Amino acid sequence: MKEKNNLVITIGRQYGSGGRMVGKALAKEFGINFYDEEILTLTSEQSAVGEVFFRLADEKAGNNLLYRIVSGLKPQLGKPSMDSDIVKPENLFRFQSQVIKELAQEESCIIAGRCADYILSREESNPGLVKIFVYADMPTLVKRTMEVDKIDEKEAAKRVKKINRERKEYYRYYTGESWEDWDNYDLIINTSCIDLEQTAKLIKDYIKLRGIEI
């Protein structure tokens, strides 16, 4: 009998691409949990560190971005420290990484952002891991942000650029790799010319082709 593995979908997503909405819709359809900001609450509860610290550091690079880029350094994914450096960004990332790995081991789920693709790729065996990246052209990102966030075009463009820059720097800081390097993902989807329902269908078809069962 074929062994059933947890289906764990990680979704890297540009702000405004619809990646989060697609993830939530897929999770509902599959009957599994979707984790985005929920990761922050879970990590806070497990670490006994205030959630506000995780929110302040959420998907943002630490304080030494330039130094890390030049030197090629990145935080180790070992056990988090409980000492005086407990709330340093690198240590908060280790707490968060620990929670992400535990979720992937315990259940089928969908995890948005937070370098989950990188973290889980370093586990010994993850046959049910599917790494997705969702992006779009700038006009589409701005339009969707205007619609979802209820803001004007100028503010939407500003928000898209700021948040995507932060996500890019965050990924580089903690992985030493490029957020937009397609080699890091199994499936890359441009949502500029397809709607979110079609995007979800593409992901479902890919999972089926991989032979992964829920």
Can you offer a commentary on this structure?
The chain has helices at residues 19-30, 38-47, 51-57, 65-71, 89-106, 116-121, 138-149, 153-175, 196-210; strands at residues 8-13, 33-35, 109-112, 129-135, 187-190. It is an alpha/beta fold and 214 residues long. It has a single domain (8-204), classed as Rossmann fold (3-Layer(aba) Sandwich), CATH 3.40.50.300. The protein has a 5-stranded parallel beta sheet, sandwiched between helices. It starts with 7 loop residues before the first strand and ends with a helix.
What is this structure's SSE topology?
Layout: E1 8-13, H1 19-30, E2 33-35, H2 38-47, H3 51-57, H4 65-71, H5 89-106, E3 109-112, H6 116-121, E4 129-135, H7 138-149, H8 153-175, E5 187-190, H9 196-210
Parallel strand pairs: 1-3, 1-4, 2-3, 4-5
Helix pairs in contact: 1-9, 2-5, 7-8
Keywords for this structure?
51% helix, Rossmann fold, alpha/beta, 9 helices, 214 residues
* N-C termini distance: 15 Å
**CATH level-4 homologous superfamily:** P-loop containing nucleotide triphosphate hydrolases
What value does the average pLDDT take?
86
- How many helical stretches? 9
- Number of E-state strands: 5
- Strand arrangement, major sheet: 2-3-1-4-5
Number of domains: 1
| CATH topology assignment | Rossmann fold
Enumerate the spans where pLDDT stays under 50 for 5 or more consecutive residues: 66-71
Structural class: alpha/beta
Beta-strand percentage range: 5-15%
